[in-house]
Input
Amino acid sequence: MRIYFAFLLLFAFSFAYGQGNYHVTNYSLVINGTSNLHAWQSKANEVRAYGTLQADATSLKTIQSLSVEIPVKSIKSAKGSIMDNKTYDALKANNFPNISYKLEKVVSLNSKNGGIELNASGSLTIAGVTKKIDLYVQGWLTADGTITFKGSKKFKMSDFGISPPTALMGTLTTGDEVEIVFQVSLKQ
Output
């Protein structure tokens, strides 16, 4: 009986903290930018992420794969539908409905006592243009097996062939540089 119980306990532990497929349980993704009049911010109201990761009770061991997808038309601004429509036009949402990131290489992974530091390289695709980007991400692992990553990345819209949006017959122009600030939690 003891051997049977020990086997069940080992099976349950490996299922909860082994290698597995993870999906999004919680997220926050904000795009910060500037214009010649004021700063602006848009939020993604939908983020899809999935990956194959390996963790134990105290640390993240490896990431075999990780993909993130943001439907362009889920991006909304507090400024309203005029700003949203300018964003969708700039991002060519009708032809390229998603922004996506695909992990290609884990450059370094330091994980201990629930804390995570990750340097990664991957492909970011916006408006049909794919660029290699490097990300530095911090995170943590909770007792229920949730892995949370947070970080930010600045880049120029023009690097992805995007003309910074204008309004009011060109008198309002947005800056070329934007910053994506994110926090994504994944669980098996």
Observations:
- Residues 18-187 form a domain with the Lipocalin fold (CATH 2.40.128.110).
- The two ends are 30 Å apart (CA to CA).
